[in-house]
Specification:
The protein is of the alpha/beta class. The chain contains eleven helices and eleven strands.
């Protein structure tokens, strides 16, 4: 479905901020750590694609190995990309993305981070999935998000070697250290001190000067501690009393990511981004979250219908205030708007050194 009353992003000099939709496109309910991964959620994506197009928005599907080999998804993505209504990028799950070289006694159980593998294996995995995606979709891969949000300087360097220009792995205010990968490892990446807005990362290790070549576009996350936050915490507590205690000990963290109870929080984020005059707002979700039972968050048809009501409300709120764009289009627009992109304000801590 096209939205003829809206000009495509990248074809207009509109100064409005961009609304970026990023979808981690992967197998069904990977939170359950299945031994055999299925891709039934691909059949639920046309509804979402049609909704985006109806609002003049353009998802970037960040695709992992099993979805790159799923005929249903490939047909959808090829069609949307050919019509200029979506982008395909890379999303790499190290534990089951070829070449398969086990890191732990059971990678399918532990889901080790790519940054925990030796550099030669990281390079081969990135090369293989990049090649598969480019052969499948007939276009150069330029956008990326790390599996399980794990990113470091080595990963960034390898992406640049393969021609990637945009990464969206950073989650400001969030540390994944407590989320284990390989047993005995350091856990995930810590992004608590990272910028909220897009910036160019340093090419070399932290503390070293380098040539910036990769634009980091963090997921839109803000912290707040007002009355609405406390109300949202109360809603959360109805489902999980333990989480209520945790939330009381820190500011409420608002993500531009639907979870079934945060519509007001997402609308607040859109307002906040507009007030900040930030260049973009970045939404994220997993492809499996559009399928009943495809995730713990949306377990049935009722929860999916509630999700779509939230999406309708959110997308209506951004219409006329933002311009829909893919990550590639945003990179181009930002460069045209600001001239040659320069390093961000905090390159020394933009990407941590390997643990």
């Amino acid at each position: 479905m096209n939205a003829p009353d809206l000009q495509p992003a990248g074809a207009t000099g509109s100064p409005l901020p961009r609304f970026l939709i990023t979808i981690d496109t992967e197998g069904d309910n990977l939170w359950a750590k299945p031994r055999e991964v299925t891709t039934r959620n691909s059949r639920f994506l046309p509804r979402f694609q049609e909704l985006c197009e109806a609002h003049g928005l353009k998802p970037t599907y960040l695709v992992n190995h099993e979805m790159a080999r799923c005929p249903v998804f490939v047909e959808l993505a090829r069609d949307a990309r050919a019509r200029g209504t979506a982008e395909v990028g890379m999303h790499l799950h190290a534990w089951d993305s070829p070449p398969l070289e086990p890191l732990t006694a059971d990678d399918l159980h532990h889901h080790p981070y790519l940054i925990e593998y030796p550099e030669p294996i990281m390079r081969r995995k990135i090369a293989h999935l990049t090649g598969l995606l480019e052969d499948t979709f007939g276009v150069k891969m330029t956008s990326h998000r790390a599996g399980r949000w794990a990113f470091d300087a080595t990963y960034a360097e390898l992406l640049m070697e393969h021609g990637y220009t945009v990464d969206c792995s950073v989650t400001p205010h969030v540390s994944w250290r407590g989320h284990a990968g390989a047993p005995g490892g350091a856990g995930g990446s810590d992004y608590r001190d990272f910028p909220e807005e897009p910036y160019l990362i340093a090419r070399q290790r932290p503390g070293g000067a380098g040539t910036a070549a990769l634009l980091e576009v963090p997921v839109t996350i803000r912290e707040r501690g007002d009355a609405l936050s406390r109300w949202l915490e109360g809603r959360t507590a109805e489902r999980n009393p333990v989480r209520r205690v945790v939330n009381r000990l820190r500011p409420f963290r608002a993500w531009l990511r639907p979870n079934g109870w945060n519509r007001r929080s997402m609308l607040w984020l859109v307002e906040r981004v507009a007030e900040e005059r930030a260049p973009c707002a970045e939404f994220m979700l997993h492809s499996s979250e559009f399928m009943p039972g495809g995730s713990p968050t949306f377990p049935d048809e009722r929860s999916i219908e509630s999700l779509y009501r939230d999406l309708e409300c959110l997308f209506a709120a951004v219409r006329g205030r933002f311009v829909g764009a893919t990550l590639k289009e945003f990179h181009r627009w930002l460069g045209e708007r600001a001239g040659p992109l320069r390093q961000g304000p905090t390159p020394a801590r933009a990407i941590p050194a390997p643990a």
